[in-house]
Amino acid sequence: MLESSTHLTHDKSLLFCHELRTPLTSIQGALKLLGYQHLDTLSEDAKNLLTIAINNAERLNRLANTLEMQPSPPMTVLSPSKLEHLQLENDLHQAVEKEEFSLLYQPIVCLQTAQIIGFEALARWHHNTRGEISPEIFIPLAEKTDLIYDLGLFLLSEACRQLGRWQNNLSSQSPLNVSVNLSAAQLRNSGLVDQIKKILVENRIAPNNLKLEITESVLIKNEHIALKILTELRCLGVQIYIDDFGTGYSSLGRLQELPFDTLKIDQSFVRNKNWIMSEAILMLAQRLSLDVIVEGVESLEDLINLQKLGCQKMQGYFFSRPIDAKGVASMLAQQLTEGKFSFPRKLTLE
Ligand code: C2E
Ligand code: MG
Ligand code: MG
Question: What number does the ligand 1 atom closest to the CA of 104 have?
Fold first, then answer.
């Protein structure tokens, strides 16, 4: 406790010194110039004032020196976890510069047609010493450090480039979609719509084949800029999915007026076998003419329960874990050969 408060005081003094030095240097420079060059043209009062100002600047300088000379605290004041966090932040900067990220893709399946309707792109960071780092760790870190703009754009264009390739190579299948997660922070950048337009054109992707997933809190906070961007994207033809629906502080009253197309029911509902709430969300979506995808379907039992409730579009380990682009290509090729998605053996659809 004592150590951390010492640390805080020291940090504050250093900051204070820095704040003091910057204006002081320029003030002292100006005073010296005045003193040397115009002394003979100044009145007595002005000369006195100048002397006082020079003395005061020197006093402030001495104060800054004293603060800087305060003993620095031992390095151990940073806890190991704080140190690790700082290191990771540093590594993230380099990883974004070197584009050390990749995407995995998880199929979204329609039971009615027995077809894959699209893939959700999920970011991966393979750190050269720590191995795989979860997006649940590095995405919030990227948001905190503003790296999310560059990283988000890189991931978005990677996903579109990949979708373009699949569409070219497997053109006989119905158009495929890719969903990309967007951070709330990305929706504060008014250049986002133009950047997305450019990516779509470069990769010859029809806007309605791109889906953007955002969490409900983005909309509920009603940030003017976020709503404007989402409305523009929808006008362009890009669809908006609400991710992890039911976990945020939904303002149900506003749901109707917000610009989105599909609800993704959060995986916690399936994990907790909360079929009553799942049904209620399905009914709500139906009344609002919204499409629904259920996340986190892990077992045949989950699937059957959800199907009974009228849910047709699903995603989860039961169908497939997130896989790499090569895996997607062979999954799509298999679907093309068999005429339908290759469900795990235990499942026979009506
Ligand atoms: P999300 O968008 O809700 O993605 C679904 C997460 O659930 C993924 O975790 C996926 O691997 C996992 N999942 C899928 N099916 C199942 C299942 O049946 N059971 C269980 N237990 N989990 C399942 P992942 O890839 O670790 O991503 C975690 C979160 O990180 C994502 O949640 C999303 O919020 C964020 N994220 C991932 N990639 C990106 C990205 O490119 N940009 C942004 N902004 N966020 C991303
Ligand atoms: Mg998502
Ligand atoms: Mg989700």
Answer: 25
**Which residue numbers in the chain have pLDDT < 50?**
1-8, 350
Compute φ and ψ for 313, nearest 5 degrees. -105, 125
Confirm or reject: Cβ of 134 under 6 Å from ligand 1: yes
Ligand nearest the Cα atom of residue 106: 1
Q: Which residues contact 6 (CB under 8 A, 6 or more apart)?
A: 73, 77
Neighbours of ion ligand 2 (CB under 5 A): 181, 213, 243
Greatest alpha-carbon pair distance for the chain in Å reads: 103
Rounded CA separation 321/318 (Å): 8
For residue 87, which of 139, 127, 140 has the smallest C-alpha distance? 127
Ligand 1 atom with the shortest distance to the CA of 298: 18
- Check: CB of residue 183 under 8 Å from CB of residue 146: no
Residue among 303, 301, 265, 304 nearest 282 (CA):
265
Pairing of strands 313-314, 101-110: antiparallel
Q: Which tokens go with 280?
A: 């209620």
Give the residue, by CA position, lying nearest to ligand 1 atom 20: 296
Measured in whole angstroms, the distance separating CA 115 from the mean position of its chain's CA atoms is 29
DSSP, collapsed to helix, strand or coil, labels residue 310 as coil
204: β partners: none
Distance 310 CA to ligand 3 centre (A): 20
Q: Supply the DSSP string of 52-76, one letter for each residue.
A: HHHHHHHHHHHHHHHHHTSPPPPGG
Alpha-helix residue ranges (DSSP H) falling in 170-223:
192-202, 216-220
Helix (H, G, I), strand (E, B) or coil at 113: coil
Question: Cα separations (Å) of 271 from 40, 72, 106, 267?
Answer: 85, 51, 18, 6
Angle at 139 between CA 135 and CA 142, to 5 degrees: 145
- The reported pLDDT for the residue numbered 3 is 39
- Looking at the CA of residue 123, tell me the nearest atom of ligand 1: 38
How far, CA to CA in Å, does 33 sit from each of 26, 45, 190?
Answer: 11, 18, 46
Q: What is the DSSP letter of 184?
A: G
**291-294 and 262-265 as β-strands: parallel, antiparallel, unpaired?**
parallel
The two structure tokens encoding residue 260: 């989105």
pLDDT at 149: 95
